[in-house]
Amino acid sequence: MMDFTNTLAEREKQIEKDYPPEGVFVEINGWRHHVVTRGRGPDVVLIHGAGGSTRDMSFRLMPALESDFRVTAIDRPGHGWTTAKDPMSVVTPMQQASLLWSLLDELEIRKPVILGQSYGGSVAIAMSATCPGRARGYSLISAAATDDIEMSRIWNQPVVLRAHDMLAAPYMSLIHDRIINHALEGLFAPDPIPQGYIKHFGPRMSLRKDYYLHKTRQIICLKSSLTEMMQWYATLPDRFDVVHGQEDRLLPIGSHAIPFSWLTPNASLHAIPGAGHMPHQTHCEEVANSVRRMAALP
Questions:
Q1: 201: left (phi over 0), alpha (psi -120 to 50) or beta
Q2: How far, CA to CA in Å, does 186 sit from each of 161, 192, 204, 249, 276?
Q3: Nearby residues of 123 by Cβ (< 8 Å), 6 or more positions away
Q4: What total of structural domains would you count in the chain?
Q5: Which run of H or of E encompasses 74?
Q6: Angle of CA points 141, 223, 189, to nearest 5°
Q7: Using CA of residue 168, residue 170, residue 173, residue 174, what is the dihedral sign?
Q8: Phi and psi for 18 in degrees, rounded to 5?
Q9: How far are the Cα atoms of 39, 55, 199, 201 from residue 196, in angstroms, in the given order?
């Protein structure tokens, strides 16, 4: 058993060696945040989704923006290279929002455009609710914006969660490439995965045991968190540019982007025909234009 445990530890070390940090570390509030900043100009902050990292943002979106903006991508709590002694101290979107505002203060980022993709969209909405008026505007890309979260409901069953923690999480880093590729194909569908994305992104980083467990806890709490957050949508004063693929199979546009746009007074919906859940990779220019629209606000 000890030999197998050592094998798992060595596997995780190799994964981290293959995908070293892209940026710098900033320590605040008990967390060691990994932050990547490129370009010059007005500030744009990029917040990735569940299981993502700065590498998801640095593949296509950062290069598309950095000629006009100072772009900062952040590994969210429990993702990428961001760590803490007690990672479970920050799990919900509201808790993450408070932590990220403290980080942006430390980085002296004022009035940014904040882009959140998928779960990062939930965190972006929570940032608006936590500190209204502090951002110039928000670009929500394929955002989880309502409590219609099926995966959250499934994993919130105690028996399922215990089995997952004991039987699945410790061994996820050993999973076969074919299974990882198949999962990513489903995430991107009906769009193809861009050439070079998997190699750049490094999906196995999210399969390290402790990070995988933390990601699971974040997903479990998402449904109940969004149920609470939805009560505030009508009072949010900030501007939201809502970009969503019409063929998104993970978070369907009719369950998330459209209801959010109805409920929130200053939200504009931009549907992308034929696009799936990852338009920041497959329709990068449309997503970059969302940031430009928000940056142009007075």
A1: alpha
A2: 23, 9, 17, 8, 9
A3: 47, 76, 93, 96, 97, 100, 116
A4: 1
A5: strand 70-74
A6: 40
A7: negative
A8: -70, -25
A9: 23, 12, 5, 9
**CATH number, domain at 88?**
3.40.50.1820
pLDDT in tens, 262-293: 999 999 999 999 999 999 999 999 999 999 99
Instruction: Give the tens place of pLDDT for each residue, 39-75.
Output: 999 999 999 999 999 999 999 999 999 999 999 999 9
Question: How far is it, in rounded angstroms, from Cα 214 to Cα 217?
Answer: 5
Residues 241 and 262: their CA atoms lie apart, in Å, by: 13
Cis peptide before 259 (omega within 30 of 0): no
The structure tokens listed for 141 are 């890309």
| pLDDT mean for each 10 residues of the chain (298 residues) | 65 93 96 97 97 97 98 97 89 97 97 98 98 98 94 52 52 75 94 97 90 88 95 97 97 98 98 98 98 94
* Residue 253 identity: I
Paired tokens of 291: 């940031």
| Residue among 252, 261, 271 at smallest CA distance from 230 | 261
- pTM equals 0.93
Domain housing 228: 2-295
Chain-centroid distance, C-alpha 80: 11
